[in-house]
C-alpha cells in the first residue's frame, strides 16, 4: 500500500502494474491504426496527449505534428518524449477554443479524452480530414466504483451513440464506430490504489486514508477469492469532415 501510494502517477504509462493487474486490449489496436494513417497526413494534432505515449510509439510523423495537454506534470513528460521528434507540445486547458486556426490539420487523434469538443475538431480539420479516437465507454470498471461508492445509477455518459450524434451535429461523417467490453483483473490492493490515483474519475476524491477500511476489505477479498475482476469499456470512433 505504501509503494502504491507514493509512486508517481503522471502520464499514461501503466507499466508499474505489470504483474499486478491485467486488462484486455481492444481488437482494433489503436496504436496500429494511428501508425497506418500518419504517413498519409501532412499535419497532425494529438489532443490531450497525456505523457505523449501514443505519439512516441508511432514510427513516422508528419513534419507538422502538434500535441496539446493541460496537466503540468504531463506537459513536462510529453515534452521530454516528443520534442526530440520535432513535435510541439502546447499547454492547453482542454476547453474551447483550440489554439489553432481553421482547417489546419488533416488528421486529429485523441486517446481517452476527458471531453470531446466536436465543433472545435470540425473547425481545425481540413476538408477531407479525419478524427480518430479511442474513448472510454459507459460504466467502465463500474465494479470497482461500486465497491467503494455503492450502486451507481445508469447514465448515458460516454455513450458511443451520443458521440455519433454529437459528431454529426458538428458536420462530420462517421466512418467507424465500435465498442468492446474488456476483462480487467487486479491481483493485489496496491494495484487498485495505483489505478485509482491515476484514473481519478473512477472513485472521485480517492485517497488511501479516506478509504482505508474498504481497502482492507478488498485486500482480504483478494487474498481469499483471487483477483478482483472488473470490465473496462472502450469505443473507437472515426469521423471525417466532408471534402
How would you concisely characterize the structure shown here?
The protein is built from 9 helices and 8 strands.
Low-confidence parts = none
- Put simply, the count of helices is 9
Radius of gyration: 19 Å
Average pLDDT across residues?
Answer: 96
Q: How are the strands ordered across the major sheet?
A: 1-7-8-6-5-2-3-4
GO molecular function: S-adenosylmethionine-dependent methyltransferase activity
InterPro entries: 23S_rRNA_MeTrnsfrase_RlmA, Methyltransf_11, SAM-dependent_MTases_sf
Keywords: Methyltransferase, Transferase
Organism: Planotetraspora phitsanulokensis
How is this structure best described in words?
By secondary structure, the protein is of the alpha/beta class. It has one domain (about 1-240): Vaccinia Virus protein VP39 (Rossmann fold, 3-Layer(aba) Sandwich), CATH 3.40.50.150. Helix content is about 30%, strand content about 25%. It has 9 helices and 8 strands. The protein has helices at about 1-5, 30-35, 55, 70-80, 120-125, 140-150, 160-170, 190-200, 210-225, and strands spanning about 20-25, 45, 65-70, 90, 105-110, 125-135, 175-185, 230-240. The chain has an 8-stranded mixed beta sheet with strand order 1-7-8-6-5-2-3-4, sandwiched between helices. Helix 5 links the parallel strand 5 and strand 6 (about 125-135). About 35% of the residues are buried. The model has no long low-confidence stretch (mean pLDDT about 95).
Amino acid at each position: 500500500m505504501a509503494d502504491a501510494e507514493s509512486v508517481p502517477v503522471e502520464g499514461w504509462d501503466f507499466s508499474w502494474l505489470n504483474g499486478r493487474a491485467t486488462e484486455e486490449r481492444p481488437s482494433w489496436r489503436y496504436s496500429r491504426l494511428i501508425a497506418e494513417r500518419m504517413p498519409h497526413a501532412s499535419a497532425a494534432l494529438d489532443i490531450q496527449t497525456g505523457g505523449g505515449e501514443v505519439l512516441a510509439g508511432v514510427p513516422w510523423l508528419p513534419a507538422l505534428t502538434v500535441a496539446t495537454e493541460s496537466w503540468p506534470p504531463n506537459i513536462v513528460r510529453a515534452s521530454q518524449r516528443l520534442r526530440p521528434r520535432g513535435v510541439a507540445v502546447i499547454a492547453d486547458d482542454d476547453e474551447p477554443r483550440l489554439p489553432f486556426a481553421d482547417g489546419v490539420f488533416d488528421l486529429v487523434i485523441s486517446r481517452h479524452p476527458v471531453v470531446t469538443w466536436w465543433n472545435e475538431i470540425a473547425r481545425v480539420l481540413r476538408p477531407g480530414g479525419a478524427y480518430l479516437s479511442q474513448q472510454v465507454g459507459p460504466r467502465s470498471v463500474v465494479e470497482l466504483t461500486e465497491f467503494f461508492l455503492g450502486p451507481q445509477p445508469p447514465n448515458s455518459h460516454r455513450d458511443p451513440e451520443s458521440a455519433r450524434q454529437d459528431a454529426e451535429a458538428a458536420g462530420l461523417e462517421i466512418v467507424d464506430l465500435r465498442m468492446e467490453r474488456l476483462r480487467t483483473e487486479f491481483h493485489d490492493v496496491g494495484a487498485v490504489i495505483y489505478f485509482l490515483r491515476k484514473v481519478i474519475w473512477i472513485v472521485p476524491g480517492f485517497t488511501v486514508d479516506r478509504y482505508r477500511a474498504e481497502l482492507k476489505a478488498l485486500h482480504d477479498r483478494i487474498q481469499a477469492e483471487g483477483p478482483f475482476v472488473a470490465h473496462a469499456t472502450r469505443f473507437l470512433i472515426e469521423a471525417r469532415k466532408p471534402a
